[in-house]
From TrEMBL:
Keyword line: Nucleus, Ribosome biogenesis
Record domain TRASH: where: 6-44
Region (Disordered): 110-168
Sequence ranges of Basic and acidic residues compositional bias: 117-133
First-listed, main subcellular location of the protein, grouped into a coarse class: nucleus
Protein name per Swiss-Prot or TrEMBL: TRASH domain-containing protein
GO terms for MF: structural constituent of ribosome
Subcellular location: Nucleus
Keyword Nucleus: yes
Biased composition (Low complexity): 153-162
UniProt xrefs under CDD domains: Ribosomal_L24e_L24 (cd00472)
Organism of this sequence: Paspalum notatum var. saurae
Amino acid sequence: MRLEKCWFCSSTIYPGHGIQFVRNDAKIFRFCRSKCHKNFKMKRNPRKVKWTKAYRHLHGKDMTQDATFEFERKRNRPERYDRNVTEQTLKAIPLITKIRHDHLKKHIADRHKPGKRKEMQKAAKELEQEQHTHILPKKFISNKPSAEKTKVKVQVVQQHTQDNYMEE
């Protein structure tokens, strides 16, 4: 079973699905659904259409470079399979999936950092502006500092063993 990629949106096309368009120069274009085919006929650029994989790669929305993508690369020449190599590959698949998932989580967290920073700055600015408008009644303000640090004395006792004493 050969799985193809849509020329427009890069999604997977399963056998018996999608549309195939062959240009006069024998270039084959495969589309997963009529939406992609119609956008292609309207001469739209996939890099400018927001829902495509190309747009997401170009604008940093998806991970584009990761070592785990090398395993999914399409290879056109047939490979000779060895039982040991196949067994090792099957054992490595869960590990590779976990690594890819961890990289994706880190990528998403890095993407959200600037937004969170802006949000915190906006909240701090808003709090600073509203600080002058809200005055707390005196009964809520206490003279005692509540966040005082208390000192705690801790005694450390060493157990003496035969090894600790010097021999004469």
